[in-house]
């Protein structure tokens, strides 16, 4: 197989709320995730009104990168990461979200982190909003239901661009902006947008209005970023779970095609700069009123992204003669016609393991958009065991990642997809987003901490650490 590009960004991915800890340090305000308790596979996380003393909130301390960032970044450097994707905790910079001035101590923290990364030759790849909206904006304004929050986000992003313009080149606006298309699971609208759907409301209509505001916020940030530093690479970030037809029955094929709009709606707007006709038809058909103001079309047109980042963990499948099979299961993606794919095995958390789906995804997205792509999340969440001698063997993770790297290399070297980089998720063990557990581990670095918050926080290298280091050293030639 021919070689990967020399400047290919091999890296790792994280999100502030899942690893930083220090949730109330140095002026940081509570975020929407700080009121989420721990759940488990099949047990949803509870979203509490305020922080309650007798409840456990796993993100508060997470893995305490806040106090260990130098040691952790040294390990990332030793692994040879060329980039680290992480986010800026919005409520560290604007504790309530609507202040006139940012919190200097919060800004300083990210200066320290970015300086440390650059010292180790690691390029920061930054998401502005990865489920970290200040709680105050959610409670007082209804999150992105309110157009005012568009302005607060625009201000937050401008502050970040100005402050870090010489340290950060790669930006993404909203993490998995499209995951809230699954309105059956309240987790997504809450974490993405700070929104709770009230009784009697049409959840889909609320989601589209909220989404419109986020699309404007994203486009405004893209335009502002370019103005502040024309060298910036401004990206969108979506969750991509391809939806396969169960069979060659044309009804299954058409159903899969239509269902894929759930995945494509947000990136269609962010890449093309206008609403797709299938969405306008849906609004008309369903009677949704989505408030557009004068100038919105212009904002969207001017805020088209340079590249598309996406997460890829699994695929899913739909069958036309099955109905209301939606169990509310996260894995099913809220699809009423979702069924198991008989050709694909799943992880212990029910996530389908499908490396070919990654090559398929890269081709579909590249054909559709013709802009560079960036795989900013992929990985295998599993239980790891710390052996008595301190070693951790994780062959399943290595196998998963090997097969996915083979698939992405084929997409680049055989299909000709323009791919900027690959950042496996949770390069160090962190708190799971969907379940709040620690035991669902993705890392190549083990962290001694359990689901209840016990443990020494000691870091240890797993077998996958040296394996991935070698992959990077050989630019993906030797897996
Ligand atoms: C993505 C999110 O949905 O999936 C991450 O962007 C998340 O924040 C990742 O952690 C994996 O999900 P989980 O629930 O296994 O942590």
UniProtKB/TrEMBL annotation:
Protein name: 6-phospho-beta-glucosidase BglA
Enzyme Commission number: 3.2.1.86
Uppermost EC category: hydrolase
Secretion signal, residue range per the UniProt entry: none
Family matches, as InterPro entries: GH, GH_1_N_CS, Glyco_hydro_1, Glyco_hydro_1_AS
Family of this protein: Belongs to the glycosyl hydrolase 1 family.
Keywords from the UniProt entry: Glycosidase, Hydrolase
Gene name for this UniProt entry: bglA
Catalytic site: 377
PROSITE patterns cross-referenced by the UniProt entry: GLYCOSYL_HYDROL_F1_1, GLYCOSYL_HYDROL_F1_2
One annotated GO molecular function: 6-phospho-beta-glucosidase activity
């Amino acid at each position: 197989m021919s070689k990967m590009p020399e400047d290919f960004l091999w890296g790792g991915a994280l999100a502030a709320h899942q690893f930083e800890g220090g949730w109330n340090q140095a002026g940081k305000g509570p975020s929407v995730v700080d009121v989420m308790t721990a759940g488990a596979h099949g047990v949803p996380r509870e979203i509490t009104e305020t922080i309650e003393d007798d409840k456990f909130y796993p993100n508060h301390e997470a893995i305490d990168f806040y106090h260990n960032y130098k040691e952790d970044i040294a390990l990332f450097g030793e692994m040879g990461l060329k980039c680290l994707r992480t986010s800026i905790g919005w409520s560290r910079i604007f504790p309530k979200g609507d202040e006139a001035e940012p919190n200097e101590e919060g800004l300083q923290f990210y200066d320290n982190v970015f300086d440390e990364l650059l010292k180790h030759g690691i390029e920061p790849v930054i998401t502005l909003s990865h489920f970290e909206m200040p709680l105050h904006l959610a409670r007082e304004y209804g999150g992105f239901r309110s157009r005012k929050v568009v302005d607060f986000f625009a201000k937050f992003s401008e502050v970040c661009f100005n402050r870090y313009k010489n340290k950060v080149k790669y930006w993404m606006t909203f993490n998995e902006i499209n995951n809230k298309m699954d309105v059956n699971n309240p987790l997504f609208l809450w974490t993405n947008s700070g929104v709770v759907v009230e009784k009697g409301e049409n959840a889909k209509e609320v989601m589209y209005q909220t989404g419109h505001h986020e699309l404007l916020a994203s486009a405004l940030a893209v335009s502002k970023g370019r103005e502040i530093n024309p060298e910036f690479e401004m990206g969108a970030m979506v969750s991509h779970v391809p939806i396969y037809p169960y069979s060659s029955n044309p009804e299954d094929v058409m159903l899969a095609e239509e269902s894929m709009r759930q995945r494509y709606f947000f990136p269609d707007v962010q890449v093309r700069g206008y609403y797709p006709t299938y969405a306008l038809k849906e609004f008309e058909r369903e009677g949704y009123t989505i408030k557009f103001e004068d100038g919105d079309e212009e904002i969207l047109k001017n805020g088209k992204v340079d590249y598309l980042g996406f997460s890829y963990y699994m695929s899913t499948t739909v069958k036309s003669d099955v109905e209301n099979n939606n169990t509310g299961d996260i894995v099913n993606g809220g699809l009423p016609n979702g069924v198991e794919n008989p050709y694909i095995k799943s992880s212990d958390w029910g996530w389908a393991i499908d490396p070919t789906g990654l090559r398929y995804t890269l081709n579909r997205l590249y054909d559709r958009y013709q802009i560079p792509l960036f795989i900013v999340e992929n990985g295998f969440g599993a239980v790891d065991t710390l052996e008595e001698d301190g070693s951790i063997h994780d062959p399943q993770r290595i196998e998963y990642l090997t097969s996915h790297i083979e698939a992405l290399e084929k997409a680049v070297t055989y299909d000709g997809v323009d791919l900027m980089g690959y950042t496996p998720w949770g390069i160090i063990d962190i708190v799971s987003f969907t379940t709040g557990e620690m035991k669902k581990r993705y890392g190549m670095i083990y962290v001694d901490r359990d689901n209840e918050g016990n443990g020494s926080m000691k870091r240890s290298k797993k077998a996958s650490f040296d394996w991935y280091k070698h992959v990077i050293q050989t630019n993906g030639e030797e897996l």
